[in-house]
Amino acid sequence: MLKQFVAPVKLKHFFNFCKSAIKLQTELPFQLKNYSLLPRVDYTCNQDVVRSNRIISKLSKEGQIDEAKKLFDKMPEPDVVSWTAMISGYIRCGKIDQARELFDRTDAKRDVVTWTAMLAAYARTNRILEAELLFNEMPEKNIVSWNSMIDGYARNGGLDKGLELFWKMEERNVVSWNMVIAGLARHGQMHEAKLLFDQMPEKNVVSWTTMISGLSRNGKVDEARVLFDWMPERNVVSWNAMITGYMQNSRLNEAFELFEMMPEKTVSSWNTIIMGFILNGELTGARILFDKMRQRDVVSWTTMINGYVLEGKSEEALRNFCDMQMDGEVKPNEGTFVSVLGACSDLAGLSEGMQIHQVISKTIYQENEMVISALINMYSKCGDVATARKIFDDDLRGQRDLISWNVMIAAYSHHGCGREAINLFNEMLQMGFKPNDVTYVGLLAACSHSGLVEEGLKYFDELSRDDSMKLREDHYTCLVDLCGRAGRLKEALEVIERLPSTESAFVWGALLAGCNVHGDSETGKLAAMKLLGIDTKSSGTYLSLLKLSASNGKWKEAAKLRTQMKDIGLKKQPGCSWIEVGNRVHVFLVGDESHYETEVIHSLLRNLHMKMKKTGCAPTDDFAMEEGCLII
User: Fold this and answer.
1) Where does the record place its PPR repeats (predicted)?
2) pTM
3) 627 lies in which domain range?
């Protein structure tokens, strides 16, 4: 099996998280499982060594890598299987640098499997230069080594090098062909992929499935269906790939019809169709399917939880997490924790987030970078930026990645701590991390929220000069917001006029907000007209324009805008706020008098307003009355 590298099928979670922060995707079988972690025959005569090797492998799989290392260090004469098991254990736990340290020891025993394990680890983690150096140093290569290097090139933008290596191979197996076809499909080169597919001396079910998946991702779902119908044999993964293809192209009915036709449905099949319903906005249908499942795994629960988060139903997401915990048959994984922490962030539910943090602290995911980043984000959005920074400093020390730096910079931005964000950015540079476009969004927003105009302009200039990064709409929005808040509205307008496309509601919205702050009715009217051209039924735009007209004494214009809103049928969305007191959440809407302590609350607000007037903090009477109504 090792010689031919017939890897077992691995179905990865079909999912995508944001923006935060974890992803569950469909991984087709052509995406290789770690070769070094495949079972291998241990021919050691010493039975003590054999037992130790098995325990090391078991501990590594359970995430107890430190315990595995203690046992390894006690072994008087570890053999090559021992060394490979220990190195593979570090790789499995994401500790690639520690694996390399062990690999480079002068007393290390290595064979082609050990070398390939290290090579594949670098390739999978986008460290392609290190993988390339290791590949060239290998004293002996087998077909798996070549396949791992080709896969590394294909995954990291070096498809041409991968193809060059492919044609240099003296011996190729079906996996070699499948990898190259998958790489071409991933880069949208379906014509070349089809030519290679037709040249294959032999095809297996993975070859067909790879082509079906590639065609579907590139919008050729009907061609994919033709191939699916021609397949000499199909497995569950093939059916799932075709169903996924229909869903990726918003053809939910055909996906569901195919799902109903499946001769055998596995849990992964149910997960695939449920995810399809969620991605196509059919959360109710997804729930019906979820309830019909006889057996659920962690992907089923996580998919449903994340579906509720994406639809803004975070309370329901938390209920589902509680149901999962009560069910007891399935334990949450890193994806589950990231999703449910996102729900806590949306609700500003600090107490719920802290409870989930306690659950995480009793699992192997307490040191997972994605989970820690989600915790930092949760504490930040719930107002506890100090705890967020403490987690960043203590829990991530020595294993920070770019995502965690970006999350912490965004946390400071969210709280208007511009100087702290800049200091953290400088610390990140000193540690050798290269910022990406997301880093600069957080940094520019932090400068904008803190009034650090010159610093923000400096960082935008740095970004625009960096050829490795492309300026996004988010960067321009931050720049316009920065200038708008500082009253430099003409500069903000000039920035927008230089944009290749000015059809951006976010950019014009940032300018309109600045005009409202500084009372520039002329520029504000221009921004509002542009916004209404993009979205004619935006009540927020009408209200901003109305407020701008009223603040400049243009009462007739304000009255006209109110009439237009009434004619169109636009209403301001009622303001909503909530507060947790004594383990109970109290929700308030504008004009809502249903709360059992409404009279006491109103009395308190009136007293507060009177005190504000006496100290000179209250706004004008008309505005105060309006705001008072809004608060009540």
Assistant:
1) 79-109, 111-141, 142-176, 204-238, 297-331, 401-435, 538-572
2) 0.69
3) 586-631
CA distance linking residue 472 with residue 469, whole number of Å: 9
Q: What is the pLDDT of residues 160-216, one digit of tens each?
A: 888 888 888 888 888 889 888 988 888 888 999 999 899 898 889 999 999 999 999
In a domain, 529, yes or no: yes
616 by Cβ neighbours in 10 Å (0-12 / 13-18 / 19+) ranks as exposed
603: in domain? yes
pLDDT digits (tens, 9 = 90+) for 218-255: 889 999 999 999 998 888 999 999 999 999 898 989 99
Which positions ≥6 away from 62 have C-beta within 8 Å?
Answer: 364
Three-state DSSP string of 361-397? CCCHHHHCHHHHHHHHHHHHHCCCHHHHHHHHHHCCC
Task: Quote the CA–CA distance of 612 and 610 in Å, as a whole number.
Answer: 5
Closest CA to 256 of 266, 246, 268: 246
DSSP code for 573: P
Neighbours of 120 (CB within 10 A): 27
Residue 504 lies in a domain: yes
Contact 486, 453 (CB under 8 A): yes
**Which secondary-structure segment (H or E) carries 302?**
helix 298-310
Tokens of 67: 């315990």
Spacing of C-alpha 98 from chain mean position: 27
8 Å CB contact between 103 and 110:
yes
3-state secondary structure at position 578: strand
pLDDT of residue 29: 37
Q: Are residues 490 and 528 in the same domain?
A: yes
